[in-house]
Amino acid sequence: MYTTYHLKSAQEVNTDILDAIKATFKSKPITIIVEEDDNDFDLTTDMKEILDERLLEDQNAYISAEDSLKLLSEKYGV
After folding, report:
1. Is the residue at 20 inside a domain?
2. Which residues constitute the domain of residue 52?
3. How far apart are CA 36 and CA 22, in angstroms?
4. In angstroms, rounded to a whole number, what is the distance separating the alpha carbons of residues 31 and 28?
5. Separation between Cα atoms, residue 24 and residue 17, nearest integer Å
6. What is the pLDDT of residues 11-54, one digit of tens each?
7. Does a structural domain hold residue 40?
């Protein structure tokens, strides 16, 4: 089992969070990992291949980013 806490700042870490962890995991062994949330992500190889393929397409067939997002939203609820 795992639990993720998303905090806006390290200053939000308080005893309530520690108490919640203790209550959830009781005397079981745990690992605590702290990482900075930089809101950045790396493109996977598959993502890069798809983008490279898009660059090779006929520019006359392009749709705007706004139209593309609208279509994705309609299809996938993004």
Report:
1. no
2. 45-76
3. 23
4. 10
5. 11
6. 999 999 999 999 999 999 999 999 888 777 788 899 999 999 98
7. no
